Amino acid sequence: MKKYMQYFFSFLYTQPPYEVNEIGWGEFYLQVKIHFVDLTLSPISIVHFVKLNTDSDPNNIPPCVVNETYEEIIFKNPTVHFYNKFLQCNNTKIAPHKFQEHFIKYDFKEDSYTKKYLQFQSEVQQEICDLMSEATLLSKD
């Protein structure tokens, strides 16, 4: 059964949009493996939670289930070739999704507050570590 499931749910997408449209019900984890065109970069795997049912009122079922998550890939010290390709990427706008009205509307102002909060939290943690190190040195004297 496991081999059948791996075959049945194996999809390969090489062109955007990287979107899977399936019909079903339930919740499960999906392993996504991302391969890069630049062969110097190793493929990465992420686990994405798929939710095909809604928490809303059964009498008021929306036309689609939206379960968005944010994944971020950070490239540390990319190769010069990759970096140049990345800067030259095509930033062409694509047409809105047919269910766009149901997607989460992000408040980027709130996001900037969150980033500032995390930065301040990091600074406070660093200050606490510095003070603890100083206290340790003073207690040894």
UniProtKB/TrEMBL annotation:
<dbReference type="GO" id="GO:0006355">
    <property type="term" value="P:regulation of DNA-templated transcription"/>
</dbReference>
<feature type="domain" description="YEATS">
    <location>
        <begin position="1"/>
        <end position="89"/>
    </location>
</feature>
<keyword id="KW-0539">Nucleus</keyword>
<protein>
    <recommendedName>
        <fullName>YEATS domain-containing protein</fullName>
    </recommendedName>
</protein>
<dbReference type="GO" id="GO:0005634">
    <property type="term" value="C:nucleus"/>
</dbReference>
<dbReference type="InterPro" id="IPR055129">
    <property type="entry name" value="YEATS_dom"/>
</dbReference>
<keyword id="KW-0805">Transcription regulation</keyword>
<dbReference type="Pfam" id="PF03366">
    <property type="entry name" value="YEATS"/>
</dbReference>
<dbReference type="InterPro" id="IPR038704">
    <property type="entry name" value="YEAST_sf"/>
</dbReference>
<dbReference type="InterPro" id="IPR005033">
    <property type="entry name" value="YEATS"/>
</dbReference>
<keyword id="KW-0804">Transcription</keyword>
